[in-house]
Amino acid sequence: MLRGARLSNTVSLLRRGILGGARLSAEPVRHRALDLLGDLALPGAPLPAHVTARRPQHALNQAFVRQLLEQRDALVPVEPG
């Protein structure tokens, strides 16, 4: 399928579980959560909010951040400390 892809360096999600190179339990979930945190950090300012995401992915996360930045009253500057 993909050049260089092997079970040791890829993860396949099956109905019964994970096949391949997962290093941690729930690694795909952890990966998605870290991707979301990274995407929400792109504006470079704290986001004082509670975020709930269902099936997050980079394109949707970044579209959400773009919408926040387009709304002037959505983000309020916070003084450090």
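The record above closes out task 2.4. Task 2.5 opens with a second protein, given below.
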Amino acid sequence: MLATIGPASDSPEMLRQLFQAGVTACRLNFSHGTHSDHAARIAKIRQVADEMGIAVPLIMDLCGPKVRTDTKSYDLKMGETWNLVPTEGDPALGKIGISHPTLYQLVPVGQAIVLDDGHLELRVERVEGTEIVCSVVTAGHLKPRKSVNTPECDNGLDVLSEKDQRDLNFGRDQGLDWVAVSFVRNGADIKRVRDYLTEIGWPDPPIIAKVETPLAVASLEEIVRLSDGIMVARGDLGIECPIETVPILQKRAVRLAHRYAKLCVVATQMLDSMERNPRPTRAEASDVANAVFEGAQVVMLSGETAGGQYPLQAVQTMDRILRGAEAVTDSPPTLPEISNQTLEIVAGSVRLSEHTKAPCIAIFCHTMEIARQIAGFHCGTHVIAACFDEQIYRQVALFYGIIPVRLPRTNSIDEAITRVLDEIQARDLATAGNRIVFMYSQPFGTRLHNTIRLVQMP
């Protein structure tokens, strides 16, 4: 369970309760707040996690090339004409300012322009110079700094805005664990982000590509292959695409993620009513459970925990729904394709654990890759991820079914196995005589897992 941390949830007391109730990872939404706000939250999350002795990965969610209206308010009525201008607007002159300097060059006549997350809609009638002349399709009150979406029309902006670049430098300095990239359109956008991370001396963070536009849907398989995981961001996806297609796109995205053994997060409005109410709707409970049935590895809470009135109740409710759904779910609908030697070893380890009824599989994580791959199989045993690096220890905690443990570095596989057996015994995950499946590299310490070993608990 990934929870967005904000004013409603960033006290040490609340964080401790959220972790105890089932939160396993924290999202920092860089569309809001200052670097000092985020730094304070990062420090508190890490302090509480250290005190509790748990691994809590931190995901920075970039704002992306989001287009917004200006700082004024506007009342839009049916039949009216309003001009979108790349400067500050003027309600008296019928002009709304937007943050995109060249959108007028990109939108065709008839293009829908959706404002405020779908609450209002305009239609392009013509372009006059730098001004987009629009008629009002859906009327209402437009508040300051609201979103501007152009469904099925590429806004032409760099996937990394100047703000995103400043935020990534901050994330590097803070040692954050994952990067979620907004408004990804294709594989070239993933490469652009990786190149920039290398340029700033931070080549390591795994990337979650947020699927939220028709362009991303068209390049979905390429995006899944080139990223470390995807997020089905149903907020903008439901604005940019016909609403009736969102459940179908979600199912396709989850299955593709499984096919390539990649992380998949289902996000947005999962328990939306719990921002204001202590209980969810029945439809929301079904939505959360359905994400489990489809095989999603992670589900996310947004406003429910960031600014809602009932953050703890939302987490407790989601935890109960997830546990209930997992109790009747055996395996995901699609298993990873065996495309390399490591995946063959992983699949063999899972099969061996099933055949021997081993209560645990133990892996040694010199990178996060082996944890990512085994998580895709949704195996029914505990997976102990022995980590020698602090950041990998946190990163792998985001994957389904992974129990990360920290080990001191050693060059001896026998010493490492003994330490893992001690951890398994201390956590009461197996009893004497049980057999444990170990998967590791030979020679020990290299990245390629090529060895399976069955070890009996003393």
